[in-house]
Amino acid sequence: MANSKSTEYVLSILKKTFKKENFKVLSGTTKSQKIKIESDDRDSVYTQVPKILKEYSLSYIKTDDGSVGSYDIKFDSFTVRLLFKNKSGGMSETTLNSTITELVPCILFIDKKTNLIKNKTTKKDFLKVIKYLKDNPNSKVYVGSDAKPGMEFIKEMSGSSKFVEKMINARGILDYLVKLNGEQEITNLYWAYRGKPTGVVNNHKGDVFVKFKNGKMLGVSLKAGTGKSEEPKLNTYVNAVLENLNEIQEIKKLKKKVWKEIHSTFGLSENWTISKDLPAIKKYREVTPQNILDEQYNKMLEICRASIVKVFNKDKNSTLKFIKEQIIAEQKDVPLVVVKGLNTGKYTILNEEDELETFLPEVKTVSSYINPSSKQNWHIDLISKKSKLTLNMSIRTNKSKPHNKLAQGYNLAIKFNSLTKS
């Protein structure tokens, strides 16, 4: 197949599936051509493309070009590379999905339109809900200038690959709000997208804030999933944890150790940065066998996990202070409740933060340790005279390619996943 014909062929099969995406053929050579695909949800398109290529028996390899990676499609001696980019103002599907479960129930409750979604399960029914939201903008739920992004999210909701699932989760959240209103009259709801309503501290974990008739407020942290699924209750980073614990010297030691044992082995300077050295990391990935890359990432995980466990064992009071401020993170005059919208259209209250807060004054001993059967899990035991609470934690990469794993360096993600009582 001629070079131009190869590019045209790839374009033609992609356009059959991706009708809303923008395709741009970039300047090429006699040996290669690049096609840039701009999408409202780059990550989703990137995931779908391999299935399409396989349908047409096109061989391809993954590369690290671009923020999420790219695909090289081989035609004898000619290569077509697919690049992926979010459209200007585009959003990730993860953010879009969380907005469905947060914003939809807020507006329907305030507008007294709960029947629009009650007992509904089909995409056709849920599309009617989105039409109502588009046709009836409600500014009462927005903080500051969030009305504009809120309306943009509403326009894109039906394009989510999990649209029906997340609308059913939203039904559960709305059910909670209706029952809460029966206990204490609600006068307004605030969607906390970029900011918090007046009187709420910036680090409050609420996604939605409830204002009652008596003037008091409640923060609601929203989760979505099945009855048994576990969503992280804390998402932070190694740097933030160590800074909070005033372990500045440990940051320096950890950074140096990770560089010496990992990044220096493939030529990066001690003061390397992702913005400056990403091309070198990409090149190293291209020429290094995957098993070696995995070994190095696992070693980096091991080093970072050991450092975190060590500092949480240093001082009981510092550890309890961190738990209170960062995991419970409750503002006394704006309490927090964690509500999970289920895939049945119902909800459940997750009261682990309440249980943890009640237990903290009883703690006599703190013990942090590595889970030997996992590469990323670790635990914090809070031990009283009569019982023990275990915080199940993890440390891992959380960036998209090519910024993930080795490129993320020591500043990996720290998560609190669940609580176990014994």
Descriptive notes:
The protein is of the alpha+beta class. The protein folds into three domains: about 5-85, Beta Polymerase, domain 2 (2-Layer Sandwich), CATH 3.30.460; about 95-225, no CATH class; about 235-330 and about 350-420, no CATH class. The chain contains twelve helices and 15 strands. The chain has helices spanning about 5-15, 40-55, 95-110, 125-135, 145-155, 165-185, 240-245, 250-260, 275-285, 290-310, 315-330, 350-360, and strands at about 20-25, 30-40, 60-65, 70-75, 80-85, 185-190, 210, 215-225, 235, 335-340, 345-350, 365-370, 375-385, 390-395, 415-420. The strands form three sheets. It has a five-stranded mixed sheet, with helices on one face. Strands 6-7-8-10-11 form a five-stranded mixed sheet. Strands 9-15-14-13-12 form a five-stranded antiparallel sheet. β10 and β11 (about 345-350) form a beta hairpin. It starts with a helix and ends with a strand. The mean pLDDT is about 90.
Q: Keywords, please?
A:
five-stranded mixed sheet, 15 strands, 3 domains, 422 residues, alpha+beta, 12 helices, Beta Polymerase, domain 2
Write a concise synopsis of the structure shown:
With 422 residues, this protein is of the alpha+beta class. Helices cover 40% and strands 23% of the residues.
